[in-house]
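quick one, 293 residues, struct below
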Amino acid sequence: MKRIGIGLIAALILILLAAPTQAPAQSAGPVTITLQFAAIRQGTVGLVRVAGEDLAEVRAVFQERVFQFYPDQAGFTGLISAAMEQDVGTYNMQVWVRHGDGTAERIDQDVQVNYGEFGRFDIILPASMMPLLQPDINQAEKDKLFNIAGRFTPERYYTEGFILPSAAEQIGWFGTWRLYNQSFWYQHTGLDMKMAIGTPIVAAASGRVMLSEMVAIRGGFVLIDHGWGIYTGYAHLSERYVVPGQWVKQGDVLGLSGLNGRSSGAHLHWEVMAGGVWVDPLTFLDLGLIAGS
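---
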């Protein structure tokens, strides 16, 4: 199963862009774009539907990122995401459609990005953890994850939708601005759940394990590719029961919760990436994605 990097997709889009925009008289049929939202907030995902006659391929360019669309019963569906640090405003989305006869056309669609309404929180870490606040350490880990989760897998591995990896109490919210030791500001990339060390953590959906190792900030960490540009990450695990390349199903135990990495208390940090950016796990679950949706 091939995995397509952002750079390769961008190159393919450039080839598509080079094709002349099809005149209405030559069109294989009208194309309809439907946004399943009025606006998307910073750090969230929106569903876009494209319908028309004889559609062979659909891609979109939004906020300088390329999004693949996938065929369904009604045409093509795509997930577009706004980064949590993206400025609020109206952005152009270019939807590129290729028809079965080889002709192509571009349709422009405005998308409104609204405030994520993120809070703030002060955290004091012990002196032993101060090195984990250094910007270069944080950037290195971010680059490592984005090098993997910035890629799109054409196949969709999940069939049953997504669930929470634990029913434990939720204590830390996505997007919150955290001030560490009155010195370093970082924005929270996931959802924290309080639990005792050794609590089983399950896969939110079916997919392929891409990473299972110790990293500086997240400690014991597992990253799963669910296809369709969606990844989930599970951090601060004391035990990891899966290895890279392994296929897992929703509900499979990935490991046990722990207290490691940049953490002052036992908990699970769960994060979701879609379209190459972190998104709010709870609003992502609200989409109710299932195969064919």
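Confidence is low (pLDDT under 50) at residues 8-28.
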